[in-house]
Write a structure and sequence with these properties.
Distance between the termini: 35 Å
CATH superfamily of the largest domain: Type I PLP-dependent aspartate aminotransferase-like (Major domain)
Order of helices and strands: EHHHEHEHEHEHEEEHHEEHEHEH
Helix content: 25-40%
Largest sheet: 7 strands, mixed
Structural class: alpha/beta
CATH topology of the largest domain: Aspartate Aminotransferase, domain 2
Strand order of the largest sheet: 2-8-7-6-5-3-4
């Protein structure tokens, strides 16, 4: 990978060497099971508890409100299904946005086969959910609202504080998938009135295979996985100690310089948006221009949407890694339009083709400039599928 430019940090990030260093002892030296009562187990348990406290302090939570999981998909499944089944006496209605991650959408589709009712809120052209539409969709039997903080494809950031207040007033649980925003935007569970938050490690320069679900104290939630009662009885399974340690350290590193790094990423992001708009006349931005994640750019190219994979591969040959959308959906084939792009009003052809560029803390201005030189060259080599070009 030497010499390559990695611009796919929305899919995964390079693990910070400082994080790796902190993890290493828990593979070979302090390798005990954190549920064991002997000294080796106690050392592992202490490491898990330190990481739990680190993450909790960053979002304004208590340590016992952090439940470790295997990642964002598991946390979202636990939040959606766990709340639904634990609160059937109140009702069986849930509300999510039409642009949620596949794991939320598919969890809801499954719940519909089990007798639950789900409202999929539409979004506007920039990907924003309307507060009035959310309020209108809420019913007496609504038990959960789940709205993603920052969208993984188009980067649009939702007004979760206003949504949280609305849900609190209606006594409805509010969950947000913050996998893309955690470590880039400041999250405060008290101010934003959040009941459940999904976060993970590998989007913030931590290891893969570890995530967490914040569950506000007093929340009625059922475990989705049964076993020995680990993680306060909410998520049974022997904890991934090295991963959890790495998660805690990565979160601490991101939090310590969050505002400065987010501002730097915004400058690089805007440099890409302005540069692509200037150099490629038929490029159009997907998502909100300013209410978007600091590190996310998503462009479509009029008449070239069917060439998105070829464009990505052209850039790959130039040693630049980007994506055509969510990595989690890439194995489902290009015949499937992006449900996110469809939801913001793009037609089926447009919804099959977009270029997503996502930045991380190791990206530089020089790398951005190289990308801006490479993209027009790659575009020139493609044959337009539109009679207009």
């Amino acid at each position: 990978m030497d010499g390559r430019i990695y611009l796919d940090n929305g899919a995964s990030t390079k693990v910070d060497p400082v994080v790796v260093k902190e993890m290493l002892p828990y593979f070979t030296e302090q390798f005990g099971n954190p549920s064991s009562l002997h000294a080796d187990g106690v050392a592992a348990r202490d490491a898990v508890d330190r990481a739990r406290a680190r993450i909790a302090s960053i979002i304004g939570a208590r340590p016992d409100e952090i439940v470790f999981t295997s990642g964002g998909t598991e946390s979202n499944n636990l939040a959606i299904k766990g709340i639904a089944y634990a609160n059937v006496k109140k009702g069986k209605h849930l509300i999510v946005s039409a642009i949620e991650h596949d794991c939320v959408i598919n969890s809801c589709k499954w719940l519909e086969t089990q007798g639950f009712e789900v409202t999929y809120l539409p979004v506007n052209r920039t990907g924003l959910v309307g507060l009035s539409e959310l309020e209108a969709a809420m019913r007496k039997d609504t038990v959960l609202v789940s709205i993603m903080h920052g969208n993984n494809e188009i980067g649009t950031v939702q007004p979760i504080e206003e949504m949280g207040k609305l849900c609190r007033e209606r006594e409805v649980y509010f969950h947000t998938d913050a996998c893309q925003s955690f470590g880039k935007l400041r999250i405060d569970v008290q101010r934003q009135k959040l009941d459940l938050i999904t976060i993970n490690a590998h989007k913030i320069h931590g290891p893969k295979g570890v995530g967490a679900l914040f569950v506000r104290g007093g929340t009625t939630i059922s475990p989705w996985q049964h076993g020995g009662g680990h993680e306060f009885g909410i998520r049974s399974s022997t904890e991934n100690v090295p991963g959890i340690v790495g998660f805690g350290k990565a979160a601490e590193l991101c939090s310590s310089g969050l505002e400065e790094e987010s501002a730097r990423l915004c400058r690089l992001r805007d440099r890409i948006i302005d540069g692509v708009s200037e150099k490629v006349a038929y490029a159009y931005l997907n998502g909100h221009r300013t209410k978007r994640l600091p590190n996310n750019v998503n462009f479509g190219f009029s008449g070239f949407e069917g060439e998105a994979i070829k464009l990505m591969l052209q850039l790959d040959e130039a040693d630049i890694s980007v994506s055509t959308g969510s990595a989690c959906s890439s194995n489902q084939g290009e015949s499937r339009p992006s449900h996110v792009l469809t939801a913001i009003g793009l037609n089926p052809v447009e919804a099959r083709g977009a270029l997503r560029v996502t930045l991380g803390k190791y990206n530089t201005e020089e790398e951005v400039d190289i990308f801006l030189q490479a993209l027009p060259k790659a575009m020139e080599s493609l044959r337009s599928i539109s009679s207009l070009h």
